[in-house]
UniProtKB/TrEMBL annotation:
GO MF annotations, alphabetized: hydrolase activity; RNA helicase activity
Key words, A-Z: ATP-binding, Helicase, Hydrolase, Nucleotide-binding
Enzyme Commission number(s) of this protein: 3.6.4.13
Protein name: Exosome RNA helicase MTR4
Transmembrane segments annotated in the record for this chain: none
Signal peptide boundaries: none
Pfam name, any one: MTR4_beta-barrel
Length: 51
């Protein structure tokens, strides 16, 4: 996992699904934790988050 800044106007949609994001994402463990959470959301919503 990598933290990549983006400009707000490039965001096309926002989902109501929320994930806990650690305050500090510099450690590999923190980024891997977020990656696991994202993977679980993708597993639970195979058709995507937007309806």
């Amino acid at each position: 996992m990598q933290v990549v800044p983006i400009l707000l106007h490039l965001v096309k949609a926002i989902s109501s699904v929320r994930l806990y994001i650690p305050k500090d994402l510099r450690s590999l463990d923190s980024r891997q934790s977020v990656g696991k959470s994202i993977k679980e959301v993708k597993h639970r919503f195979p058709d995507g988050l937007l309806c």
